[in-house]
Structures are given as structure tokens and as C-alpha cells.
Write a structure and sequence with these properties.
By secondary structure, the chain is α/β, with parallel strands linked by helices. The chain has helices at residues 46-53, 169-172, 178-189, 205-216, 231-238, 253-260, 275-283, 327-339, 358-366, and strands at 6-12, 21-27, 34-43, 69-77, 89-92, 132-133, 139-140, 152-156, 160-162, 197-201, 221-225, 242-244, 267-270, 291-294, 316-319, 349-354, 372-376. The strands form 3 sheets. Strands 3, 4, 5, 8, 9, 16 and 17 form a 7-stranded mixed sheet that branches. The chain has a 6-stranded parallel sheet with strand order 12-11-10-13-14-15, sandwiched between helices. Helix 3 (178-189) crosses helix 4 (205-216).
Length: 377
């Protein structure tokens, strides 16, 4: 099918909070510096959930194909693509890396001038057009540089990472977002040290990936915080040493954590997307050197609940995009570490369903019953 339009199934969003509809869509061939891939596995992240709900009005672009966590094989490449060929095993990344811009050449950032994560972008970078359309010829818009809820998708080559052909694609799906974001935050952003103490606020897939990152760095105390009591058992499996449910406490979470850690943890991670939780995470760190890393998605325009003078006590706060991984440069090595079982990726896959049952997979996430539901295409 190289150079030709492909007809395939895709789960199309026609409006906020509406069930996704399995449609036959047309997928154009890749243009210059683009790649068309056949998706084999995809899963649902809270970012997809937030976009599906339409919580940010500026993101309400329809019809649209969501999805950004996946794995597959290259079907064809456009002009100028030299680092991939037909049949290569790949994972898409929402935070691209062109390799040529001032950002990509800097060791201080993993953002890219043209292909960084942008939830408002809905067309291809080269010509401002869509590669998806209905059978009537109407455009279907893209999402997060990826749009993986489709049997075939077209991406900028900067947003596709070639991985070892021996890597298990099922597990590699998680490298597109959740695992890389959480583990990278612990490894790259915070650089968690052996023997240190860590608090993780929100034990979804990203939060548990942070736990896994802290465990592999041999943190001595890993406190998991979640209002869902069912997260205790899974958290213990992944490596938490203590569990706190704010609903069960008679005092603020940060006060309890300070008691447990002789003044506060060395690192805290906010993975819940809640401003009040950011404040608790910040205050739970140790005076003088504590670091808070923000990973949650915050769709509201409200600002940080911090007084500037609180930053004069030595505590720091920062955000982390894609775990500070440079996708195309560093992800292949991360995949090799996962292949050596240094990271327990399979623990994150709690459910598996056929692609046709994608709406059921969404409801599992809405109900807090799944970490990652893997969809087989």
C-alpha cells in the first residue's frame, strides 16, 4: 500500500464525553519527513481521558482521533526519512525530537521547537492539513502528534522511535507515555538517590511508574498517597513502603509525612492533577533541600497555591515533560533496559481488550479499575 490511501478502522470522537465511534476512515500516505505506521497495540492514558471529556474548551476540535500510547510497525515512509524503513518496530512519542533545533541540541531540555507536546495542535506540521478523512472526504483531526486510536496513523518522523525488533511490543507500548513519564521523572528530573525518601501523590500508572523508578534507584522509603484504598496492594507490589489515604487522616497529609520522615521527604511527585495536592506535595518535602516534581495534568486556569516566600526555605518545585527523556535519542536505550527486566513493565498492564471495546476500556479508567488497558488492533 506504499504511496496509496489506506482504508481502516479508527475510534473517532465526534464530541466531548460522547462514546467513541468505530468508523472506516481514509489514511493518506506519508508526506515529506512523515511515517505511516500500523498500530498493533494502544492503551488509554488520563490525558486521553481529559481530552475526551473536553475539559479544556480550546481542545474541542472534532471529529478527532485520540490516543498517544502505542506500538507498531512502519508501513511506509515519506521522502527524506532515513532512520526508519518498512517493517521496523516503533513506538510513537507525543513529545518529538527533530534533532536539529536549538532545543534538541541543548542538554538542558527535552523539548523540540517544532514537535514538542502540544494538546492544541490538530494538523500535520508540514502543510497544516490532516492525514485522516471520512469516506465522504471530510477531515478528521489529529491529537498529540500521534492519534493512535486507529489501525494506521501518520506521524512526523520526529515523533516515531525505532526500537529493537526483539523488544516485546505489548510492553513497549507503555514507553510512549506512562512508563517513560514516571520513571524518567524519578531518574532524570529528580535524579533520586539511593537511601533517599520519596512521596508519590496519586497512584495511577504515572505515579506507579515513579514508584518503580524510585525502587530501581534504591530509595529507602517510598510513600504512596491515594484516596482509592484499592491502590494499596498494587502499590506494595510495585515498591511502596508506606501508604496514606487522605480520607483516613485527621491532619494534613504533609504533616503526617513530616512526622514519618523526620521533617519531610527528599523528593515528592504530584501525579494527580490537583492544585491542592501540589501544595501538599510541596510542603511534604524537607526544608532546605526538598524537590517537588509536578506530573499531573491541570486543565483549569488556576495558578499555583504557593506564596513566593515559601520558596526561600530551600524547597524547589519543577515540572517534567515525558520524564525529561529525549525521545529518539534516549528511548531505545530505555527499551533495552526494559528488555533486561530492570523495569517491571508488565505490572502496569491490568487489562487487555480488543480494539472494538475501546469504550469499555475508557470506563475502566474512569472507574479507577485499570492502570493500563491494552487494546489489541
Amino acid at each position: 500500500m506504499t504511496g496509496k490511501v489506506i482504508t481502516c478502522r479508527a475510534a473517532v470522537a465526534w464530541g466531548p464525553n460522547q462514546p467513541l465511534v468505530m468508523e472506516e476512515v481514509l489514511v493518506d500516505p506519508p508526506q515529506k519527513m512523515e511515517v505511516r505506521i500500523k498500530i498493533l497495540f494502544t492503551s488509554i492514558c488520563h490525558t486521553d481521558l481529559t481530552a475526551w471529556k473536553g475539559e479544556n474548551e480550546a481542545q474541542r476540535v472534532y471529529p478527532r482521533i485520540f490516543g498517544h500510547e502505542a506500538s507498531g510497525v512502519v508501513e511506509s515512509v515519506g521522502e527524506g526519512v532515513e532512520d526508519m524503513k518498512e517493517g521496523d518496530h516503533v513506538v510513537p512519542i507525543f513529545n518529538g525530537e527533530c534533532g536539529d533545533c536549538v532545543y534538541c541540541k541543548s542538554e538542558k531540555s527535552n523539548l523540540c521547537q517544532r514537535f514538542r507536546v502540544n494538546p492544541f495542535k490538530s494538523v500535520m506540521a508540514s502543510d497544516g492539513k490532516c492525514r485522516f478523512s471520512t469516506k465522504q472526504g471530510n477531515p478528521i483531526f489529529h491529537f498529540l502528534n500521534t492519534s493512535t486510536f486507529s489501525e494506521y496513523t501518520v506521524l512526523d518522523s520526529a515523533c516515531v522511535v525505532k526500537i529493537d525488533s526483539q523488544a516485546p511490543l505489548k510492553e513497549m507500548t507503555l514507553l510512549s507515555c506512562g512508563a517513560s513519564t514516571g520513571l524518567g521523572a524519578a531518574w532524570n528530573t529528580a535524579n533520586v538517590q539511593a537511601g533517599s525518601s520519596v512521596a508519590v501523590f496519586g497512584l495511577g500508572a504515572v505515579g506507579l511508574a515513579v514508584v518503580e523508578g524510585a525502587r530501581t534507584r534504591r530509595a529507602s522509603k517510598i510513600i504512596g498517597i491515594d484516596i482509592n484504598p484499592n491502590k494499596l496492594l498494587k502499590g506494595q507490589t510495585m515498591g511502596i513502603t508506606d501508604f496514606l489515604n487522605p480520607k483516613d487522616l485527621r491532619k494534613a497529609v504533609h504533616e503526617k509525612i513530616r512526622e514519618m520522615t523526620n521533617g519531610g521527604v527528599d523528593y515528592s511527585f504530584e501525579c494527580a492533577g490537583n492544585l491542592e495536592v501540589i501544595r501538599e506535595a510541596f510542603l511534604s518535602t524537607h526544608d532546605g533541600w526538598g524537590l517537588t516534581v509536578v506530573l499531573g495534568i491541570h486543565p483549569t486556569p488556576r495558578t499555583l497555591p504557593l506564596h513566593p516566600m515559601e520558596l526561600f526555605d530551600g524547597r524547589r518545585i519543577t515540572g517534567s515533560v515525558f520524564g525529561d527523556f529525549k525521545g529518539k535519542t534516549q528511548l531505545p536505550h530505555f527499551a533495552e533496559e526494559c528488555m533486561r527486566q530492570e523495569v517491571k513493565l508488565d505490572e502496569f498492564i491490568t487489562h487487555e481488550l480488543p480494539f472494538s471495546e475501546i469504550n469499555e476500556a475508557f470506563q475502566l479508567l474512569v472507574g479507577g479499575k485499570s492502570l493500563r488497558c491494552l487494546l489489541h488492533l
